[in-house]
Amino acid sequence: MAAIPSQLTSLDFFEIKESIRSYLRTRKEFSDYDFEGSSASYLIDILAYNTYYTAFNANMALNEAFLETATVRDNIVRIAKQLNYTPRSIKAPRACVKMVAQTVTSLNGTTFPEFATLKKGDVFVADNDFDSYTFALTQDIKVPVDSSSGQAVFDNVLVYQGNLLQYNYTVDYTKRQEYVIPDDRVDTGLLTVDISPTAQSSETDTYSAATNVTNANSTSRIYYLEETDDMRYKVVFGDGSIGRKLIDGEYIKLTYVSTDGVEANGAKSFAFVGNVIDSDGRVISPNAITLTTKDAAQDGEDRETALSVKFRAPRAYATQNRAVTENDFEHIVSEIYPQAASVTAFGGEKLSPPVYGKVYVAIRPKTGNKLNATTKNKIKKDLLKYSVASIEPVIIDPTSFYVIPKSYVYYNGNDTNLSSNDLRTKVLKNIDDYNAQNAANRFNNRFEGSKYAGVVDNSDPAISGSTTQITLGQNLDTFQFGQVFNQCLDFNNPLFRPGDYSGTSDDNGTGDGNGTSGDGTDGSDGTCKPTFSVVKSGTFYATGYTESLLNNANLTSGVVQVDTAVFDSTTSQTLVPVNLRDDGKGNMMLVTVKDEAEVILNNNVGSVNYNTGEVCVGPLNVALTPDDTNRIPVVVYPSGGSLEPPAGTDPIIFNPDVNPIDYTINDLSVPIFDPNNFSGFNFGGGELNILDYPTDTFTYPDIEDCF
Fold first, then answer.
1. Rounded to an integer, what distance in angstroms lies between the CA atom of residue 267 and that of residue 274?
2. Among residues 13, 113, 187, 207, which one has the fewest Cβ atoms lying within 10 Å of its Cβ?
3. How wide is the angle at C-alpha 481 spanned by C-alphas 478 and 483, nearest 5°?
4. Computed from CA positions of residues 268, 271, 273, 278, in that sequence, does the dihedral angle turn out positive or negative?
5. Any alpha helices (H) in 527-568, and if so which ranges?
6. C-alpha to C-alpha distance for 556 and 575, rounded to whole angstroms
7. What CA–CA distance (Å, rounded) separates 403 from 473?
8. Measured between alpha carbons, how far is 26 from 502 in angstroms, rounded to an integer?
9. In terms of Cα–Cα distance, which of 613, 617, 623 is closest to 602?
10. Cα–Cα distance between 602 and 604 in angstroms, integer?
């Protein structure tokens, strides 16, 4: 009996060819046959090619049957459909404008019309840097006319880029019918589905997109969306059990926006091309209309990619239309609010103190702005449909977690023609790119000092290495001027413990740092006084701390000289600038400077937990800040280069400082952290501090009003 080929799994042409030869040699007819150069060689090649292509096609066909290995979009969409997932369509950019229409008096010549209506349709054109685009209004807007001025003000008008189109179907059960939207650039989020008894009927029933079939019954006015093979979408209606079944002869009206998507982002120069009609039925002249752009076109997106479908479909299926886990909340919010650039959710039990029964959802919009109250309430209302038991979702703004690097960059000046300033610019550009690339996934992500150092070092071939000092920043921002407040800031990372380096009174500051905690001012507890602080605040003015208080306290000799003192007209006193810092032993102090010497005004205005990174301030009464904002910056020095932001915070690289050093000219050693000498890393110099008092408050995004 002839041997059976054993290499049945090979997909290599030459291996298949050799397998055929080996098989033929087992037959006595070909035992001494020389296949090379013979006519049989061509037959073996044909057999090998045929086997190769058949095996390849079979392998590819099998791969296309599984979501993980599929590569063709149509196949990916079909598999996702089995998981009840519909790929996201292209998204139309939206813009916000304000229009003021000047009406004319009514036919009686004395009164103005009662109202004016901005008609839906293609009403604006706008330009960005590349092209001109049409913007559509999806529904009529009616506003009253001011009876004295005759002006009709259309404020916060949302328009979407694209053309407002309509396509109709008549239900006919005598043939196989699919209700396909005949446009591959439709924004399904703006789709309107209306059903009428007949084409001539004025009676209209508006159907809504189905989100949860568990609440659907035989009369529910709902529809489903499915992506077809040509990347268009078809509308599917109920079967009479899950959703109302359409009746033969009913008239389907599909109204949608066909958009250019991301291409139109940034359009802002708007011109009105629509119609405004007053209550008397007259068209208001375009010359009587003034137009103001409040927000340029934004939030446009391309259709969901096949790779995104492969990632999101299983996770959407895992949620099962309910929000239980943190991942459930994150996914559902991403679905109900597509403008979210990134979402993170965390249970209230992770807070300090813990809050049970609540899930906090932090959303960073794609525009970079905070959400307004209306949007938050809408998201919360939509989330409650999925939330189980008594879990309450709370929509919050991300807490900005400022990562402030200061880098010493060492380079060989013989290897580059760039100046130190040019090199600094190049490094900063690399850091900005790194910050922007990671903008979408900063939530729940660590900041690795080694990765950041790689970004700096790879900025130019002449750079041989760098040393970076990282500080972290947040704002005290819960206070009102003239009112006592308490606030804790969670930095979620261990801080350097200055007391560990202070030593004991009997070893000249070189002890083991195991002394007990005291007031931190004079070392009277058996330890030396810590020589530096790791927590510092920006400058502000505290109620009650005045020049007269300093002069009368005999804290130092001489007359106080404070150039930045301010006069408080309310109390008729001159307030002195103050700062917060830790004493190295866990207490927060209020300090100022008198005659170039530090003066401790209060040695207990809060606490520091060096193990957890929690900084608490208060009770404290702030009278004024230099920039009149209700926030005071606080910076800390973490003990490690790998940082883990707290839950619900958005870590941002903020104002990186780069100091290029040409080591061929400057014979400088790399600054290292020395517990007995902080001069290498000392921002401002002086024995008390390893970092300067911050001068500017950390910026917050502007609150978005229109959207």
1. 18
2. 13
3. 75
4. positive
5. 547-552
6. 18
7. 7
8. 86
9. 617
10. 6
Closest CA to 272 of 101, 405, 428: 101
Q: In whole angstroms, what is the distance from residue 588 CA to residue 572 CA?
A: 28
Q: Which residue pairs from 669-678 have beta carbons closer than 8 angstroms and sit at least 24 positions apart in sequence?
A: 670/408, 670/410, 670/465, 670/467, 671/408, 671/467, 672/467, 675/500, 675/501, 676/501, 676/509, 676/510, 678/531, 678/532
Is residue 602 classed as helix, strand or coil in its secondary structure?
Answer: strand
Contact 589, 579 (CB under 8 A): no
Rounded CA-CA distance 327/306 in Å is: 21
699: phi then psi, degrees, rounded to nearest 5:
-75, 145
3-state secondary structure of 503: coil
CB atoms within 10 A of CB 123: 23
Pairing of strands 358-365, 340-347: antiparallel
Asked, as a colleague might, if the bond just before 353 is cis with ω within 30 of 0, I would say: yes
Nearest to 707 by CA among 260, 301, 369: 369
CA atoms within 13 A on the CB side of 167: 14
Q: Give kind and range of the element (H or E) at residue 577.
A: strand 573-582
In sequence order, the 6+-apart residues with CB closer than 8 A to the CB of 450 are 641, 642
Least trusted range by pLDDT, from 200-204, 313-317, 324-328, 527-531:
527-531
- Decide which of 33 and 333 is more confident: 333
DSSP state of 515: P
Distance in angstroms (rounded) separating the CA atoms of residues 656 and 456: 11
CA distance 133 to 124: 8
Q: Which two tokens stand for residue 473?
A: 């920043």
Kindly state the DSSP code that residue 2 receives in the 8-state scheme.
Answer: P
Residue whose tokens read 């001109």: 132
Task: Quote the CA–CA distance of 530 and 503 in Å, as a whole number.
Answer: 8
User: Tokens 């407002």 belong to which residue?
Assistant: 164
The helix or strand, by DSSP H or E, that contains position 332, with its residue range, turns out to be: helix 326-336
User: Is residue 528 within 8 Å of residue 502, measured between CB atoms?
Assistant: yes
Is residue 79 within 8 Å of residue 227, measured between CB atoms?
no
Give Cα separations from 167 to 140, 609, 702 (angstroms): 19, 65, 41
Q: Which of 587, 418, 595 is nearest to 498 (CA)?
A: 587
Across the strands, what pairs with 100? 153, 290
What 3-state DSSP class applies to 487?
Answer: strand
Least confident of 16-25, 260-269, 599-608: 16-25
Q: Are 206 and 193 in contact (CB under 8 A)?
A: yes
Across-strand partners of 598? 593
CA distances from residue 585 to 499, 535, 600, 645 in whole angstroms, order as listed: 6, 11, 15, 24
- Give the number of residues written for the chain: 707
Q: What is the pTM for the complete model shown?
A: 0.59
CA atoms of 698 and 707, how far apart (whole Å) = 25
Cβ-based neighbours of 670, under 8 Å, separated by 6 or more: 408, 410, 465, 467
pLDDT digits (tens, 9 = 90+) for 89-132: 999 998 999 999 999 988 777 889 999 999 999 899 998 877 89
Using the predicted structure, report yes or no on whether residue 466 has a pLDDT greater than 60.
Answer: yes
pLDDT interval class at 550 (50, 70, 90): low
Amino acid in the structure at residue 248: D
Which residues 6+ apart lie within 8 Å of 25 measured at CB? 31, 33
- What does the alpha-carbon distance between residue 41 and residue 583 come to, in Å, rounded to a whole number? 89
Distance CA 136, CA 92 (A): 10
DSSP H or E segment with residue 692: none
CA dist., res. 135 & res. 265, Å (int):
12
130: amino acid identity, one letter: F
**152 contacts 145 by C-beta, under 8 angstroms:** yes
Q: Cα dist. 179→168, 170, 213 in Å?
A: 9, 10, 20
